[in-house]
Protein backbone atom coordinates (compact mmCIF):
# COMPACT_ATOMS: atom_id res chain seq x y z
CA UNK A 1 0.00 0.00 0.00
CA UNK A 2 1.28 3.44 -0.82
CA UNK A 3 2.75 5.72 1.81
CA UNK A 4 0.05 8.33 1.17
CA UNK A 5 -2.72 5.84 1.82
CA UNK A 6 -1.11 4.59 5.02
CA UNK A 7 -0.77 8.13 6.31
CA UNK A 8 -4.31 9.14 5.32
CA UNK A 9 -5.81 6.48 7.57
CA UNK A 10 -3.86 7.48 10.67
CA UNK A 11 -5.27 9.56 13.50
CA UNK A 12 -2.96 10.53 16.35
CA UNK A 13 -4.57 12.28 19.28
CA UNK A 14 -4.64 12.87 23.03
CA UNK A 15 -7.43 13.51 25.51
CA UNK A 16 -7.45 16.73 27.46
CA UNK A 17 -9.50 16.94 30.62
CA UNK A 18 -9.44 17.72 34.31
CA UNK A 19 -9.12 14.74 36.69
CA UNK A 20 -12.44 12.91 37.20
CA UNK A 21 -14.13 14.30 34.10
CA UNK A 22 -14.13 10.76 32.68
CA UNK A 23 -10.97 10.43 30.58
CA UNK A 24 -10.21 6.88 31.75
CA UNK A 25 -13.81 5.76 31.28
CA UNK A 26 -13.94 7.26 27.80
CA UNK A 27 -10.56 5.74 26.88
CA UNK A 28 -11.86 2.31 27.86
CA UNK A 29 -14.92 2.68 25.69
CA UNK A 30 -12.89 3.95 22.74
CA UNK A 31 -10.57 0.97 23.05
CA UNK A 32 -13.51 -1.37 23.15
CA UNK A 33 -14.78 0.01 19.88
CA UNK A 34 -11.34 -0.68 18.54
CA UNK A 35 -11.62 -4.28 19.71
CA UNK A 36 -8.92 -3.87 22.35
CA UNK A 37 -11.14 -5.08 25.12
CA UNK A 38 -8.53 -6.63 27.38
CA UNK A 39 -6.73 -3.34 27.55
CA UNK A 40 -9.84 -1.63 28.81
CA UNK A 41 -9.46 -3.52 32.08
CA UNK A 42 -5.80 -2.60 32.22
CA UNK A 43 -6.56 1.10 31.97
CA UNK A 44 -8.80 0.77 34.98
CA UNK A 45 -6.34 -1.41 36.88
CA UNK A 46 -3.58 1.04 36.30
CA UNK A 47 -5.64 3.91 37.51
CA UNK A 48 -6.77 2.07 40.63
CA UNK A 49 -3.17 1.54 41.66
CA UNK A 50 -2.28 5.06 40.82
CA UNK A 51 -5.03 6.33 43.04
CA UNK A 52 -3.95 4.18 45.91
CA UNK A 53 -0.43 5.51 46.11
CA UNK A 54 1.86 8.32 45.32
CA UNK A 55 4.84 6.19 46.19
CA UNK A 56 7.45 6.06 43.45
CA UNK A 57 8.56 2.49 44.04
CA UNK A 58 5.02 1.29 43.64
CA UNK A 59 4.76 3.31 40.50
CA UNK A 60 7.89 1.52 39.32
CA UNK A 61 6.17 -1.80 39.87
CA UNK A 62 3.38 -0.51 37.72
CA UNK A 63 5.72 0.45 34.91
CA UNK A 64 4.89 -2.56 32.77
CA UNK A 65 1.37 -1.35 32.32
CA UNK A 66 2.05 2.32 32.35
CA UNK A 67 4.64 2.14 29.60
CA UNK A 68 2.34 0.03 27.49
CA UNK A 69 -0.46 2.49 27.87
CA UNK A 70 1.55 5.66 27.21
CA UNK A 71 0.42 5.03 23.66
CA UNK A 72 -2.59 2.98 22.77
CA UNK A 73 -2.83 2.01 19.15
CA UNK A 74 -6.05 0.54 17.88
CA UNK A 75 -7.97 0.11 14.67
CA UNK A 76 -11.42 1.46 14.10
CA UNK A 77 -13.24 1.14 10.77
CA UNK A 78 -10.47 1.76 8.25
CA UNK A 79 -8.51 3.97 10.58
CA UNK A 80 -5.35 3.31 12.56
CA UNK A 81 -5.60 5.30 15.72
CA UNK A 82 -2.82 6.29 18.10
CA UNK A 83 -4.23 7.50 21.39
CA UNK A 84 -1.49 9.13 23.44
CA UNK A 85 -1.98 9.15 27.18
CA UNK A 86 -1.94 12.56 28.81
CA UNK A 87 -1.08 11.67 32.42
CA UNK A 88 -3.37 13.34 34.94
CA UNK A 89 -3.94 13.04 38.70
CA UNK A 90 -0.69 12.61 40.63
CA UNK A 91 1.40 11.84 37.61
CA UNK A 92 0.45 15.07 35.92
CA UNK A 93 3.76 16.49 34.77
CA UNK A 94 5.43 18.35 31.96
CA UNK A 95 5.06 15.14 29.98
CA UNK A 96 1.36 15.79 29.89
CA UNK A 97 2.00 19.07 28.09
CA UNK A 98 4.66 17.62 25.83
CA UNK A 99 2.52 14.74 24.65
CA UNK A 100 0.30 17.38 23.10
CA UNK A 101 3.17 18.53 20.90
CA UNK A 102 3.14 15.08 19.26
CA UNK A 103 -0.57 14.81 18.38
CA UNK A 104 -2.54 15.97 15.36
CA UNK A 105 -5.77 16.55 17.24
CA UNK A 106 -7.29 16.31 20.69
CA UNK A 107 -10.49 15.26 22.37
CA UNK A 108 -11.63 17.46 25.21
CA UNK A 109 -13.75 15.89 27.94
CA UNK A 110 -15.83 18.21 30.11
CA UNK A 111 -17.85 17.17 33.16
CA UNK A 112 -21.33 18.59 32.56
CA UNK A 113 -21.71 19.52 36.21
CA UNK A 114 -18.29 21.09 36.67
CA UNK A 115 -17.81 22.81 33.34
CA UNK A 116 -14.37 24.09 32.38
CA UNK A 117 -11.81 23.20 35.08
CA UNK A 118 -8.23 24.43 35.60
CA UNK A 119 -6.30 21.50 34.12
CA UNK A 120 -8.37 21.64 30.96
CA UNK A 121 -7.58 25.34 30.66
CA UNK A 122 -3.86 24.65 30.97
CA UNK A 123 -3.89 21.83 28.43
CA UNK A 124 -5.95 23.93 26.08
CA UNK A 125 -3.29 26.62 26.25
CA UNK A 126 -0.77 24.06 25.01
CA UNK A 127 -3.09 22.95 22.19
CA UNK A 128 -3.42 26.55 21.13
CA UNK A 129 0.33 26.83 20.54
CA UNK A 130 -0.03 24.58 17.52
CA UNK A 131 -3.70 25.34 16.77
CA UNK A 132 -4.53 21.71 17.41
CA UNK A 133 -8.06 20.81 16.27
CA UNK A 134 -10.26 19.79 19.19
CA UNK A 135 -13.43 17.72 19.38
CA UNK A 136 -15.40 18.23 22.60
CA UNK A 137 -17.31 15.62 24.58
CA UNK A 138 -19.55 16.85 27.37
CA UNK A 139 -19.82 13.93 29.75
CA UNK A 140 -22.06 12.68 32.56
CA UNK A 141 -25.38 13.77 31.08
CA UNK A 142 -26.94 10.98 33.15
CA UNK A 143 -26.38 13.29 36.13
CA UNK A 144 -27.75 16.72 36.88
CA UNK A 145 -25.39 19.24 35.37
CA UNK A 146 -25.32 22.76 34.03
CA UNK A 147 -27.59 23.84 31.21
CA UNK A 148 -26.00 22.85 27.87
CA UNK A 149 -26.15 26.38 26.49
CA UNK A 150 -24.44 27.73 29.61
CA UNK A 151 -21.72 25.12 29.20
CA UNK A 152 -21.10 26.18 25.62
CA UNK A 153 -20.91 29.82 26.68
CA UNK A 154 -18.45 28.91 29.43
CA UNK A 155 -16.25 26.96 27.02
CA UNK A 156 -16.29 29.83 24.53
CA UNK A 157 -15.43 32.40 27.14
CA UNK A 158 -12.84 30.53 29.19
CA UNK A 159 -11.15 28.65 26.37
CA UNK A 160 -11.60 31.19 23.61
CA UNK A 161 -12.86 28.68 21.09
CA UNK A 162 -16.09 28.77 19.13
CA UNK A 163 -18.46 25.88 19.96
CA UNK A 164 -20.65 24.23 17.41
CA UNK A 165 -22.83 21.43 18.79
CA UNK A 166 -23.20 18.50 16.42
CA UNK A 167 -25.48 16.71 18.84
CA UNK A 168 -27.87 18.08 21.44
CA UNK A 169 -28.98 16.51 24.71
CA UNK A 170 -32.59 15.94 25.62
CA UNK A 171 -32.94 16.51 29.33
CA UNK A 172 -30.33 15.54 31.88
CA UNK A 173 -29.97 13.47 35.04
CA UNK A 174 -33.06 11.35 35.64
CA UNK A 175 -34.80 13.08 32.75
CA UNK A 176 -31.99 12.36 30.26
CA UNK A 177 -33.61 10.83 27.20
CA UNK A 178 -30.75 10.87 24.75
CA UNK A 179 -29.31 13.13 22.08
CA UNK A 180 -30.41 14.46 18.76
CA UNK A 181 -27.63 14.26 16.19
CA UNK A 182 -27.90 17.52 14.31
CA UNK A 183 -25.95 16.58 11.21
CA UNK A 184 -27.21 13.05 10.77
CA UNK A 185 -30.70 14.11 11.87
CA UNK A 186 -31.02 11.10 14.11
CA UNK A 187 -32.46 10.66 17.53
CA UNK A 188 -30.41 8.41 19.84
CA UNK A 189 -32.41 7.21 22.78
CA UNK A 190 -30.83 6.58 26.14
CA UNK A 191 -31.93 3.86 28.54
CA UNK A 192 -30.66 4.38 32.05
CA UNK A 193 -28.37 1.71 33.41
CA UNK A 194 -27.81 0.06 30.08
CA UNK A 195 -24.30 -0.03 28.76
CA UNK A 196 -24.63 -0.66 25.10
CA UNK A 197 -23.53 0.80 21.85
CA UNK A 198 -26.68 -0.46 20.08
CA UNK A 199 -28.96 2.19 21.49
CA UNK A 200 -32.08 2.94 19.56
CA UNK A 201 -31.58 5.27 16.63
CA UNK A 202 -34.53 6.94 14.95
CA UNK A 203 -34.25 9.12 11.91
CA UNK A 204 -36.05 12.44 12.33
CA UNK A 205 -35.52 14.72 9.35
CA UNK A 206 -37.95 17.36 10.44
CA UNK A 207 -38.23 18.28 14.07
CA UNK A 208 -41.90 19.16 13.61
CA UNK A 209 -42.58 15.47 12.94
CA UNK A 210 -45.31 14.33 15.45
CA UNK A 211 -43.27 11.14 15.93
CA UNK A 212 -41.00 13.24 18.12
CA UNK A 213 -43.91 14.03 20.47
CA UNK A 214 -44.86 10.38 20.64
CA UNK A 215 -41.37 9.42 21.69
CA UNK A 216 -40.35 12.31 23.89
CA UNK A 217 -43.66 13.68 25.22
CA UNK A 218 -43.27 17.18 26.60
CA UNK A 219 -39.52 17.02 26.06
CA UNK A 220 -40.12 17.16 22.30
CA UNK A 221 -41.05 20.83 22.51
CA UNK A 222 -38.08 21.51 24.75
CA UNK A 223 -35.81 20.02 22.11
CA UNK A 224 -37.48 22.07 19.37
CA UNK A 225 -37.07 25.22 21.44
CA UNK A 226 -33.39 24.46 22.13
CA UNK A 227 -32.61 23.79 18.48
CA UNK A 228 -34.36 26.99 17.43
CA UNK A 229 -32.30 28.91 19.94
CA UNK A 230 -29.14 27.20 18.74
CA UNK A 231 -29.78 28.05 15.15
CA UNK A 232 -29.73 31.69 16.10
CA UNK A 233 -26.86 31.45 18.58
CA UNK A 234 -24.34 28.86 17.42
CA UNK A 235 -22.20 29.08 14.33
CA UNK A 236 -22.58 26.29 11.80
CA UNK A 237 -19.81 23.72 11.67
CA UNK A 238 -16.95 24.84 9.47
CA UNK A 239 -14.26 22.26 8.73
CA UNK A 240 -11.60 24.90 8.09
CA UNK A 241 -12.27 26.61 11.40
CA UNK A 242 -12.11 23.27 13.17
CA UNK A 243 -8.83 22.38 11.46
CA UNK A 244 -7.42 25.78 12.36
CA UNK A 245 -8.29 25.15 16.01
CA UNK A 246 -10.70 28.06 16.25
CA UNK A 247 -13.93 26.04 16.38
CA UNK A 248 -14.78 22.86 18.24
CA UNK A 249 -17.61 20.48 17.38
CA UNK A 250 -19.41 19.44 20.57
CA UNK A 251 -21.00 16.11 21.47
CA UNK A 252 -22.94 15.17 24.58
CA UNK A 253 -23.19 11.81 26.27
CA UNK A 254 -22.32 9.57 29.16
CA UNK A 255 -19.05 7.70 28.92
CA UNK A 256 -19.85 5.28 31.71
CA UNK A 257 -23.01 4.22 29.91
CA UNK A 258 -21.17 4.15 26.61
CA UNK A 259 -23.74 6.60 25.37
CA UNK A 260 -22.71 9.04 22.68
CA UNK A 261 -19.21 7.53 22.49
CA UNK A 262 -19.57 5.76 19.14
CA UNK A 263 -21.11 8.90 17.69
CA UNK A 264 -18.15 10.87 19.02
CA UNK A 265 -15.60 8.39 17.64
CA UNK A 266 -17.27 8.26 14.22
CA UNK A 267 -17.28 12.03 13.90
CA UNK A 268 -13.77 12.19 15.28
CA UNK A 269 -12.19 9.85 12.72
CA UNK A 270 -14.08 11.54 9.89
CA UNK A 271 -13.34 15.13 10.86
CA UNK A 272 -9.98 15.09 12.57
CA UNK A 273 -6.89 15.46 10.42
CA UNK A 274 -4.48 12.78 9.29
CA UNK A 275 -0.82 13.50 10.11
CA UNK A 276 0.10 16.83 8.57
CA UNK A 277 3.26 18.78 7.81
CA UNK A 278 5.64 19.59 10.67
CA UNK A 279 7.93 22.54 11.03
CA UNK A 280 11.66 21.97 11.33
CA UNK A 281 14.27 24.69 11.70
CA UNK A 282 15.44 23.98 8.16
CA UNK A 283 12.09 23.63 6.38
CA UNK A 284 8.57 22.24 6.52
CA UNK A 285 8.51 18.45 6.43
CA UNK A 286 5.51 16.72 4.85
CA UNK A 287 4.45 13.30 6.10
CA UNK A 288 4.50 11.61 2.71
CA UNK A 289 8.15 12.35 2.06
CA UNK A 290 9.82 8.97 1.54
CA UNK A 291 12.66 9.64 3.99
CA UNK A 292 12.03 8.76 7.59
CA UNK A 293 12.10 11.51 10.23
CA UNK A 294 10.84 11.73 13.79
CA UNK A 295 11.38 13.50 17.10
CA UNK A 296 11.46 12.43 20.72
CA UNK A 297 8.69 13.92 22.87
CA UNK A 298 8.84 11.72 25.93
CA UNK A 299 11.33 9.59 27.81
CA UNK A 300 10.33 6.99 30.30
CA UNK A 301 12.68 5.32 32.72
CA UNK A 302 12.27 1.62 32.47
CA UNK A 303 11.81 -1.13 35.02
CA UNK A 304 15.38 -1.77 36.00
CA UNK A 305 17.07 1.29 37.50
CA UNK A 306 20.43 -0.52 37.61
CA UNK A 307 20.60 -0.51 33.85
CA UNK A 308 19.52 3.06 33.30
CA UNK A 309 17.36 1.70 30.57
CA UNK A 310 15.01 4.23 29.02
CA UNK A 311 12.35 4.16 26.38
CA UNK A 312 12.34 7.24 24.18
CA UNK A 313 9.03 7.84 22.46
CA UNK A 314 9.34 9.13 18.92
CA UNK A 315 6.63 10.65 16.83
CA UNK A 316 7.24 9.75 13.18
CA UNK A 317 6.89 12.90 11.09
CA UNK A 318 7.60 11.57 7.64
CA UNK A 319 8.16 8.41 5.73
CA UNK A 320 8.22 4.84 6.87
CA UNK A 321 10.07 3.15 9.69
CA UNK A 322 11.31 -0.37 9.25
CA UNK A 323 12.75 -2.74 11.81
CA UNK A 324 16.53 -2.77 11.80
CA UNK A 325 16.72 0.56 10.03
CA UNK A 326 19.71 2.88 10.54
CA UNK A 327 18.92 6.44 11.44
CA UNK A 328 21.04 9.46 12.17
CA UNK A 329 20.91 10.94 15.65
CA UNK A 330 21.67 14.50 14.67
CA UNK A 331 22.46 16.07 18.02
CA UNK A 332 25.35 13.70 18.61
CA UNK A 333 26.10 13.17 14.93
CA UNK A 334 25.95 9.37 15.03
CA UNK A 335 24.18 6.73 12.99
CA UNK A 336 22.35 4.19 15.05
CA UNK A 337 20.67 0.99 14.10
CA UNK A 338 17.28 0.36 15.64
CA UNK A 339 16.71 -3.36 15.85
CA UNK A 340 14.14 -3.32 18.59
CA UNK A 341 11.78 -0.37 18.38
CA UNK A 342 8.50 -1.00 20.08
CA UNK A 343 5.10 -0.19 18.73
CA UNK A 344 2.29 0.13 21.17
CA UNK A 345 -0.76 -1.84 20.27
CA UNK A 346 -3.43 -1.41 22.89
CA UNK A 347 -3.57 -5.17 23.43
CA UNK A 348 0.12 -5.69 23.94
CA UNK A 349 3.54 -4.36 23.15
CA UNK A 350 5.24 -5.79 20.14
CA UNK A 351 8.31 -5.11 18.10
CA UNK A 352 7.72 -2.87 15.15
CA UNK A 353 8.12 -4.31 11.72
CA UNK A 354 7.05 -1.09 10.11
CA UNK A 355 5.45 2.18 11.10
CA UNK A 356 4.41 5.32 9.28
CA UNK A 357 4.18 9.06 9.76
CA UNK A 358 1.79 9.70 12.63
CA UNK A 359 2.75 6.52 14.50
CA UNK A 360 4.69 6.45 17.72
CA UNK A 361 7.63 4.13 18.25
CA UNK A 362 9.54 3.46 21.44
CA UNK A 363 13.32 3.17 21.25
CA UNK A 364 15.40 1.66 24.04
CA UNK A 365 18.51 3.57 25.01
CA UNK A 366 20.76 4.17 27.99
CA UNK A 367 20.32 7.86 28.42
CA UNK A 368 21.74 9.03 25.08
CA UNK A 369 18.45 10.45 23.81
CA UNK A 370 17.17 13.85 24.92
CA UNK A 371 13.71 15.25 24.53
CA UNK A 372 13.50 17.13 21.24
CA UNK A 373 16.15 14.97 19.52
CA UNK A 374 15.50 14.33 15.85
CA UNK A 375 16.26 11.11 13.98
CA UNK A 376 16.24 10.98 10.19
CA UNK A 377 17.51 8.72 7.44
CA UNK A 378 18.87 11.55 5.36
CA UNK A 379 19.34 15.28 5.81
CA UNK A 380 19.84 16.84 9.23
CA UNK A 381 16.59 18.24 10.60
CA UNK A 382 15.54 19.78 13.88
CA UNK A 383 11.82 19.77 14.55
CA UNK A 384 10.44 22.77 16.36
CA UNK A 385 7.52 23.12 18.72
CA UNK A 386 8.72 20.80 21.50
CA UNK A 387 9.40 23.35 24.19
CA UNK A 388 10.10 23.39 27.89
CA UNK A 389 7.10 24.79 29.72
CA UNK A 390 7.58 27.20 32.58
CA UNK A 391 7.24 25.21 35.80
CA UNK A 392 4.57 26.16 38.29
CA UNK A 393 5.94 24.45 41.40
CA UNK A 394 9.39 24.95 42.92
CA UNK A 395 11.51 23.23 45.56
CA UNK A 396 15.09 23.72 46.68
CA UNK A 397 17.29 20.63 46.69
CA UNK A 398 19.12 19.83 49.92
CA UNK A 399 22.12 17.61 49.47
CA UNK A 400 22.84 15.47 52.50
CA UNK A 401 26.44 14.63 51.69
CA UNK A 402 28.36 17.71 50.43
CA UNK A 403 30.97 15.44 48.82
CA UNK A 404 28.36 14.31 46.32
CA UNK A 405 27.85 17.69 44.70
CA UNK A 406 29.26 16.65 41.32
CA UNK A 407 27.18 13.53 41.29
CA UNK A 408 24.10 15.56 42.19
CA UNK A 409 24.77 17.90 39.29
CA UNK A 410 25.16 15.01 36.87
CA UNK A 411 21.99 13.33 38.05
CA UNK A 412 19.94 16.49 37.93
CA UNK A 413 21.16 17.42 34.46
CA UNK A 414 20.34 13.96 33.14
CA UNK A 415 16.94 13.90 34.78
CA UNK A 416 16.16 17.31 33.34
CA UNK A 417 17.27 16.20 29.86
CA UNK A 418 14.87 13.35 30.19
CA UNK A 419 12.09 15.77 31.07
CA UNK A 420 11.52 14.21 34.51
CA UNK A 421 11.98 17.60 36.18
CA UNK A 422 13.47 21.00 35.37
CA UNK A 423 16.47 22.35 37.19
CA UNK A 424 17.58 25.88 37.89
CA UNK A 425 20.92 26.75 39.45
CA UNK A 426 20.71 30.10 41.17
CA UNK A 427 23.37 32.62 40.13
CA UNK A 428 23.97 33.97 43.59
CA UNK A 429 24.16 30.87 45.75
CA UNK A 430 24.50 28.00 43.29
CA UNK A 431 21.50 26.29 44.87
CA UNK A 432 19.56 23.84 42.78
CA UNK A 433 15.89 24.67 42.40
CA UNK A 434 13.62 21.99 41.00
CA UNK A 435 10.77 23.14 38.80
CA UNK A 436 7.74 21.03 37.98
CA UNK A 437 4.12 21.22 36.99
CA UNK A 438 3.05 18.14 38.96
CA UNK A 439 3.96 17.68 42.61
CA UNK A 440 4.92 14.01 42.30
CA UNK A 441 7.83 14.97 40.04
CA UNK A 442 9.76 16.08 43.14
CA UNK A 443 9.44 12.71 44.88
CA UNK A 444 10.34 10.91 41.70
CA UNK A 445 13.47 13.07 41.31
CA UNK A 446 14.67 12.47 44.85
CA UNK A 447 14.01 8.74 44.58
CA UNK A 448 15.79 8.45 41.26
CA UNK A 449 18.77 10.48 42.49
CA UNK A 450 19.12 7.93 45.24
CA UNK A 451 18.64 4.73 43.23
CA UNK A 452 20.29 5.70 39.96
CA UNK A 453 22.96 8.20 41.06
CA UNK A 454 23.53 7.19 44.70
CA UNK A 455 22.90 10.73 45.87
CA UNK A 456 21.07 11.28 49.11
CA UNK A 457 19.08 14.49 48.84
CA UNK A 458 15.72 15.87 49.78
CA UNK A 459 13.84 19.04 49.01
CA UNK A 460 12.43 22.00 50.91
CA UNK A 461 10.05 24.77 49.94
CA UNK A 462 11.23 27.98 48.29
CA UNK A 463 9.78 31.43 47.88
CA UNK A 464 9.61 31.09 44.12
CA UNK A 465 6.25 30.73 42.49
CA UNK A 466 6.70 31.66 38.85
CA UNK A 467 9.48 31.23 36.31
CA UNK A 468 10.12 32.86 32.96
CA UNK A 469 13.09 32.52 30.65
CA UNK A 470 14.57 35.92 29.93
CA UNK A 471 16.32 37.34 26.90
CA UNK A 472 17.30 40.87 25.90
CA UNK A 473 18.90 42.20 22.77
CA UNK A 474 20.46 45.13 24.56
CA UNK A 475 23.51 43.73 26.34
CA UNK A 476 23.86 46.68 28.67
CA UNK A 477 20.27 46.43 29.80
CA UNK A 478 20.70 42.71 30.31
CA UNK A 479 23.79 43.25 32.44
CA UNK A 480 21.88 45.74 34.55
CA UNK A 481 18.95 43.34 34.88
CA UNK A 482 21.33 40.56 35.92
CA UNK A 483 22.92 42.76 38.53
CA UNK A 484 19.67 43.95 40.05
CA UNK A 485 17.94 40.59 40.05
CA UNK A 486 20.85 38.35 40.94
CA UNK A 487 18.82 36.88 43.78
CA UNK A 488 16.11 35.81 41.37
CA UNK A 489 18.10 34.59 38.43
CA UNK A 490 19.10 31.04 37.68
CA UNK A 491 20.44 28.95 34.83
CA UNK A 492 18.39 26.01 33.67
CA UNK A 493 19.82 22.58 32.79
CA UNK A 494 20.84 23.82 29.34
CA UNK A 495 22.38 27.04 30.62
CA UNK A 496 19.51 29.36 29.73
CA UNK A 497 18.76 32.24 32.02
CA UNK A 498 15.48 32.21 33.93
CA UNK A 499 13.89 34.76 36.23
CA UNK A 500 12.22 33.21 39.29
CA UNK A 501 9.62 35.42 40.90
CA UNK A 502 7.98 35.12 44.32
CA UNK A 503 4.54 35.86 42.85
CA UNK A 504 2.70 36.47 39.64
CA UNK A 505 2.14 40.02 40.76
CA UNK A 506 5.87 40.58 41.15
CA UNK A 507 6.51 39.02 37.75
CA UNK A 508 3.99 41.31 36.07
CA UNK A 509 5.45 44.30 37.84
CA UNK A 510 8.96 43.37 36.67
CA UNK A 511 7.70 42.85 33.12
CA UNK A 512 6.22 46.34 33.20
CA UNK A 513 9.41 47.87 34.57
CA UNK A 514 11.67 46.14 32.05
CA UNK A 515 10.15 46.61 28.61
CA UNK A 516 13.44 45.71 26.89
CA UNK A 517 13.63 42.31 28.51
CA UNK A 518 11.49 39.53 27.03
CA UNK A 519 9.96 37.04 29.45
CA UNK A 520 9.22 33.66 27.86
CA UNK A 521 6.70 31.18 29.19
CA UNK A 522 8.17 28.37 27.10
CA UNK A 523 11.63 27.58 25.83
CA UNK A 524 12.44 25.44 22.85
CA UNK A 525 14.74 22.50 23.33
CA UNK A 526 17.99 22.88 21.56
P1 LIG B 1 -10.59 10.61 34.81
O1 LIG B 1 -10.00 11.02 36.10
O2 LIG B 1 -10.88 11.79 33.94
O3 LIG B 1 -9.85 9.54 34.10
O4 LIG B 1 -12.06 10.06 35.16
P2 LIG B 1 -12.66 8.61 35.29
O5 LIG B 1 -12.93 8.04 33.97
O6 LIG B 1 -11.90 7.81 36.25
O7 LIG B 1 -14.06 8.99 35.93
C1 LIG B 1 -14.16 9.66 37.17
C2 LIG B 1 -15.44 9.23 37.87
O8 LIG B 1 -16.57 9.62 37.09
C3 LIG B 1 -15.54 7.72 38.01
O9 LIG B 1 -16.13 7.44 39.25
C4 LIG B 1 -16.44 7.31 36.86
O10 LIG B 1 -17.15 6.14 37.15
C5 LIG B 1 -17.37 8.51 36.77
N1 LIG B 1 -17.94 8.68 35.42
C6 LIG B 1 -17.29 8.64 34.23
N2 LIG B 1 -18.18 8.83 33.23
C7 LIG B 1 -19.38 9.01 33.80
C8 LIG B 1 -20.69 9.24 33.28
O11 LIG B 1 -20.94 9.30 32.10
N3 LIG B 1 -21.69 9.38 34.20
C9 LIG B 1 -21.47 9.29 35.55
N4 LIG B 1 -22.52 9.45 36.34
N5 LIG B 1 -20.26 9.06 36.05
C10 LIG B 1 -19.23 8.92 35.20
Automatic annotation (TrEMBL):
GO process annotations (BP): regulation of translational termination
Keyword annotations of the record: Cytoplasm, GTP-binding, Nucleotide-binding, Protein biosynthesis
Tr-type G domain residues: 8-278
Subcellular location: Cytoplasm
Molecular function GO terms recorded: GTP binding; GTPase activity; guanosine tetraphosphate binding; translation release factor activity, codon nonspecific; translation release factor activity, codon specific
Keyword Protein biosynthesis: yes
GO cellular component: cytosol
Gene3D superfamilies: P-loop containing nucleotide triphosphate hydrolases, Peptide chain release factor 3, domain III, Translation factors
Residues that, per the record, bind GTP: 17-24, 85-89, 139-142
Family, as annotated: Belongs to the TRAFAC class translation factor GTPase superfamily. Classic translation factor GTPase family. PrfC subfamily.
Protein's name in the database: Peptide chain release factor 3
Amino acid sequence: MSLTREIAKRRTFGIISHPDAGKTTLTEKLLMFGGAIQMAGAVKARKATRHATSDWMKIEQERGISVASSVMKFNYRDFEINLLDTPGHQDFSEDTYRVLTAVDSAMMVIDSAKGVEPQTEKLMEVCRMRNTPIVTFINKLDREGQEPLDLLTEIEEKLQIECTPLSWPIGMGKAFRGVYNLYKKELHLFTAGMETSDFETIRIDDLSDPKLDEILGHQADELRGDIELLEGAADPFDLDHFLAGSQTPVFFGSAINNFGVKELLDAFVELSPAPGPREAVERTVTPDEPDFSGFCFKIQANMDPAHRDRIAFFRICSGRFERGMSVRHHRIGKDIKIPNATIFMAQDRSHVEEAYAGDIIGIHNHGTIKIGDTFTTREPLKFTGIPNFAPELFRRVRLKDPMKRKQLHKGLVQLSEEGAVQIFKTLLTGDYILGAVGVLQFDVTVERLKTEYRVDADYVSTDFQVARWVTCEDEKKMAEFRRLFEMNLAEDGDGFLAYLAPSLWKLNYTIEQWPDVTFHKTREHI
